[in-house]
Amino acid sequence: MTGALAPAKPLTATDRCDRCGAQAYIRATLPVGGELLFCAHHGRQHVAVLRDKGADIQDESARLSATPSTAGNDER
Questions:
Q1: Domain map of the chain by residue range?
Q2: How many CB atoms lie within 10 A of CB 64?
Q3: Which residues are in the DUF7455 domain (predicted)?
């Protein structure tokens, strides 16, 4: 084992914020083991402190502002 972190799996709709239960878009993997999940709102509140304490942050909150795909929506 090299000690490198395994690639983080994408967050899904079943991943819920540990603070409020909303869909999680941010995962903080703690240096002592374990992880915390946050919605975008609570992630913004806590991510700086967690990063300063050595947590690895996976932030997928940009998905909230992504435009939906238009595939299959041909207007003729």
A1: 26-63
A2: 10
A3: 11-64
Q: Which structure tokens are listed for 3?
A: 């000690």
Q: Burial-class residue 40 by CB neighbours within 10 Å (0-12, 13-18, 19+).
A: buried
The structure tokens listed for 31 are 């240096």
- pLDDT score of 14: 97
pLDDT of residue 68: 74
Residue 25 buriedness (CB in 10 A; 0-12 / 13-18 / 19+): buried
Residues 6+ positions from 54 with CB-CB distance below 8 Å? 30, 31
Q: Which regions of the chain does DSSP assign to beta strands (E)?
A: 26-29, 35-38, 56-59
Q: Give the pLDDT of residue 63.
A: 93
CA 6 – CA 16 distance, rounded (Å): 21
